[in-house]
Amino acid sequence: MVNTLAPERAEHPASRARPAGPGLAARARRRQTVVAYLFLAPTLLFFAVFLVLPLGFALLLSMSRWAGFDLGDIRPVGLDNFTGLFARGSTFLTPILANTVLFALGTVAVALAGSVLVATCIDRLRFQGLWRTLYFLPMVTTVVAVGNVWKYMYEPGGLVDGVLNALGLASVAFLQDPHTALPAVVVVQAWASAGSAILVLTAGLKSIPRSYYEAAELDGAGAVTVFRKITLPLLRPSLLFVCITQFLTGLQSFALITVMTKGGPGDATAVAALEMYRQAFSYGDWGTASAAAFVLFVVVLVITLVQLWVLRRKGEDA
């Protein structure tokens, strides 16, 4: 008689092993999460110590009075520091905050126009590495040196004054006139920060396929049409990056203005970063300085988001 149960008894026990239950899978996921956070721990600790804690302390100071010495002297005042910035008679809204935005926008306009022009010229020249190096030199020069050199160039009898006189124009006291001081510093800021913008735009131009230009040449398109219809649309991602970085650079400018004008004449070149320094280190009012920093943060966030929306909207329309 044949034993029909033999195959079942001969089957290996491992073949009848049950699949892992939901508890084992959950424990495995938890172990993976723990390992991932262990690898992220150094970076998270860095951000906590150098970003989150200072940001929280600055927020605390923005709603307090503190002279910058003993932590026990911090006195909560609510939103008084913020209301004081915009109170009647305060110079923070005008001219300081207005100067900050105008300075940043002027830096973007001058640097962007100059960088596009120079990058386009470099793209057509030989020895491009040499030209890129020359235009990048201001980026590796200290701001104090740049500010002092341009300060003496703007002085009466300086190089700029000599060029104006050679062209038959009257001398202009650029840094002493409230109407010309801010534009004069904007030019220096744009010149000093244009090196990185030129590198980015040159790389963007290199990424545009040459076949587009060859097709436009066969169609008889002029240089202006090619630049407007091909170069600018395809260069838009690089232009977006340059606009945002130059704008942020202009908003954070402090050392150059301090060296060239110290915020003068009057408050013609006073900006938010300089006002924060004055409030904290000159007047000992760290609460007002922190409140001004948060106001500047909101301005940076709003204008940057607007720039992103406008430029991306134009990109979609194109």
Secondary structure: elements and pairs:
Elements: H1 6-10, H2 22-62, E1 64-65, E2 75-76, H3 80-85, H4 92-122, H5 128-136, H6 143-154, H7 159-166, H8 181-206, H9 210-218, H10 223-234, H11 236-251, H12 255-260, H13 272-282, H14 286-317
What does this entry look like structurally?
With 318 residues, this protein is mostly helical. It has two domains: 21-62; 80-317, Orthogonal Bundle (MetI-like fold), CATH 1.10.3720.10. It has 14 helices and two strands, in the order ααββαααααααααααα. It has helices spanning 6-10, 22-62, 80-85, 92-122, 128-136, 143-154, 159-166, 181-206, 210-218, 223-234, 236-251, 255-260, 272-282, 286-317; strands at 64-65, 75-76. Strands 1-2 form a two-stranded antiparallel sheet. Mean pLDDT is 85; it is low at 4-10. It is found in: Cell membrane. The chain crosses the membrane at residues 34-61, 96-122, 134-154, 181-205, 238-260, 291-311. InterPro entries: ABC_transporter_permease, MetI-like, MetI-like_sf.
Task: Supply database-style keywords.
about 325 residues, mainly alpha, MetI-like fold, two-stranded antiparallel ribbon, 2 strands, flat
Principal-axis shape equals: flat
Total domain count: 2
Q: Structural class of the helices, strands and pairings?
A: mainly alpha
CATH-level-2 architecture of the largest domain: Orthogonal Bundle
CATH domain class name of the largest domain: Mainly Alpha
Q: Evaluate the radius of gyration.
A: 30 Å
Brief characterization of the structure:
With 318 residues, the protein is an all-alpha fold. The chain has helices at residues 6-10, 22-62, 80-85, 92-122, 128-136, 143-154, 159-166, 181-206, 210-218, 223-234, 236-251, 255-260, 272-282, 286-317, and strands spanning 64-65, 75-76.
